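To the wet lab folks,

You asked to see what we're planning to order before we commit. Fair enough. Below is the target structure as tokens, and below that is the sequence we designed to fit it. If anything looks off to you, flag it before the synthesis order goes out.
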């Protein structure tokens, strides 16, 4: 399996940018790590291996980034305002730097599928919601979609505009909402240990109220908030979305 890595300095992040790509051809998939993860997390946990059939067949190329914003949220070493700022800048980094890198690597203006688990699911969905002109579908697995728990009761504009649960209900009619209504968001979750499928249903309600196509897939109590669940989920969904 072909594997390449990219790194550069960016003013949008408090650390160097890093991207790893697996595959040689196919639909581009941007995979977001869990909260504390890095761009190689998916490989270490066997997720890239689980996608090996799709990658080797040239159906998908998988790209992954460091969970810069997620690491700030769960580290609790910075103020909620600073973490919110990093989250908003992380979105700009994905749109302005990672997206162009993927399209250049594919030598195409192709639209990108996003995916992720836990806080990675938040980033996957938020990216499509904020940039439906460049990203065409999102798969959120075992999603953590309401990050307001990290704010200590102090909301701010950076957080508001980063969180689909908060800004989507107030999004005015226009090109962005029109484009979102031509996209798809899949929210898959188990109902086992450490899962809260209620977060997926709440986001689905927010999306549905604005006419954005989505669905919630309940995998049942045998599936926990853990890597074995995501190793089973991701290949099945990407085989349909890619």
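Sequence we intend to order:
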């Amino acid at each position: 399996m072909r594997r390449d890595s990219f790194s550069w300095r960016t003013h949008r992040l408090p650390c160097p940018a890093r991207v790893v790509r697996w595959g040689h051809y196919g639909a581009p998939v941007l995979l977001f790590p869990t909260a504390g993860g890095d761009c190689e997390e998916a490989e270490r946990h066997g997720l890239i291996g689980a996608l090996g059939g799709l990658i080797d067949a040239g159906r998908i190329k998988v790209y992954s980034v460091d969970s810069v914003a997620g690491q700030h949220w769960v580290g609790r070493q910075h103020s909620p305002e600073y973490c919110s700022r990093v989250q908003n800048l992380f979105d700009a980094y994905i749109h302005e730097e990672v997206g162009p890198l993927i399209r250049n690597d594919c030598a195409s203006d192709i639209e990108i599928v996003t995916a992720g688990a836990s806080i990675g699911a938040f980033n996957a969905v938020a990216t499509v919601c904020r940039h439906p002109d460049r990203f065409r579908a999102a798969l959120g697995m075992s999603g953590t979609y309401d990050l307001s728990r990290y704010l200590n009761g102090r909301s701010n504009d950076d957080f508001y505009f980063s969180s689909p649960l908060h800004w989507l209900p107030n999004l005015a009619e226009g090109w962005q909402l029109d484009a979102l209504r031509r996209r798809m968001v899949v929210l898959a979750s188990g109902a086992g240990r450490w899962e809260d499928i209620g977060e997926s249903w709440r986001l689905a309600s927010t999306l549905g109220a604005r006419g954005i196509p989505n669905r919630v897939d309940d995998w049942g109590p045998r599936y926990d908030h853990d890597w074995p669940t995501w190793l089973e989920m991701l290949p099945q969904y990407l085989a349909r979305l890619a």
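Structural context that might help your review: Residues 80-106 form the longest helix (27 residues). The domain at 3-241 is CATH 3.40.50.1820 (Rossmann fold).

Thanks,
Computational group
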